[in-house]
């Protein structure tokens, strides 16, 4: 592989890594703060893309308004699910949360499928990028789509901003306290339930944002998150369950490694991340950036 080919694969991998990073960050926020394994995360990613598409078809809203509104709508739906359903399972075995979110995945996918067929008469649909981000940029070694560079940059910015808020601000301190020791936090007059709902909303909102960003690259269709979420769970495990920074770094790294691996030996493309996960778990069961369970 030439240096030029390697650099092209790195940038292609960073695009996929941007989606892995946003999705795994949302999962890490939810698990790290709430100890919930949200299997519906892939469906919420798809819902973000579908919402952007629907806003355009029904109200004529373009990419930029949808980029703001769709993640907010997904976050609101997520908070309603947390208050109405998930909150009733706190204190029970984690398998109940897993089964509920798996059921919500199937329900969401079928509902979107029926809406797309009945309302828009399509099973999948393209979504155009904004005019300002059309065309390509000369990177010196290749011409690369301008929109994909935007995806990499915005994803990195959002991931770093989320990490900073949770780890370095007073709001983040309240969030961590509300989930790690809710009894003491309530003693300071803080409504823990509202913070828990908000954290869940942020996590699924990140999935919705990833879906909007993915819509112009992939077709909007009901099952677009099904395969991606499996790889995203592997990314979270490799980075360390609940590790915010680990999810971001591992998401981008896995995207790049998968792209390079696929270029060198295509048959390994779909299994490379799982091979990496197995190796990491053998060497460090808590993940690359995770803390052992007893030290939490």
Automatic annotation (TrEMBL):
Protein name: High-affinity branched-chain amino acid transport system permease protein LivH
Sequence intervals crossing the membrane: 6-31, 66-86, 147-166, 195-217, 271-291
Keyword Transmembrane helix in annotation: yes
Keywords: Amino-acid transport, Cell membrane, Membrane, Transmembrane, Transmembrane helix, Transport
Species the sequence originates in: Deinococcus xinjiangensis
InterPro entries on file: ABC_transp_permease, BCAA_transport_permease
UniProt similarity note: Belongs to the binding-protein-dependent transport system permease family. LivHM subfamily.
Subcellular location: Cell membrane
Main localization category: membrane
Membrane topology: Multi-pass membrane protein
Annotated coiled-coil segments of the chain: none
Pfam families per record: BPD_transp_2
């Amino acid at each position: 592989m030439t240096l030029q080919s390697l650099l092209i694969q790195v940038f292609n991998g960073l695009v996929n890594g941007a989606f892995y990073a946003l999705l795994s960050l949302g999962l890490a926020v939810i698990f790290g703060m709430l100890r919930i394994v949200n299997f519906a995360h892939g469906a919420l990613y798809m819902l973000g893309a579908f919402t952007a598409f629907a806003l355009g078809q029904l109200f004529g809203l373009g990419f930029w308004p949808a980029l703001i509104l769709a993640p907010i709508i997904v976050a609101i739906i997520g908070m309603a699910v947390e208050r109405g359903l998930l909150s009733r399972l706190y204190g029970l075995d984690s398998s109940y949360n897993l089964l509920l979110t798996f059921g919500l995945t199937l329900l969401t996918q079928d509902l979107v499928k029926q809406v797309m067929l009945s309302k828009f008469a399509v099973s999948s649909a393209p979504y155009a990028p904004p005019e300002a981000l059309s065309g390509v940029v000369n990177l010196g070694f290749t011409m690369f789509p301008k929109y994909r560079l935007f995806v990499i940059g915005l994803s990195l910015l959002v991931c770093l901003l989320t990490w900073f808020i949770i780890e370095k601000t007073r709001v983040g301190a309240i969030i961590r306290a509300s989930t790690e020791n809710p009894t003491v936090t309530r003693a300071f007059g803080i409504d823990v339930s509202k913070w828990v709902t908000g954290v869940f909303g942020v996590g699924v909102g990140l999935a919705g944002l990833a879906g909007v960003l993915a819509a112009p690259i992939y077709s909007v269709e009901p099952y677009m998150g099904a395969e991606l979420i499996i790889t995203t769970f592997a990314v979270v495990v490799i980075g360390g369950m609940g590790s915010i920074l680990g999810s971001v770094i591992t998401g981008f790294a896995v995207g790049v490694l998968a792209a390079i691996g696929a270029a060198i030996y295509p048959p390994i493309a779909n299994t490379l991340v799982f091979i990496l996960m197995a190796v990491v778990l053998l060497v460090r069961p808590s993940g690359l950036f995770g803390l052992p369970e007893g030290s939490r």
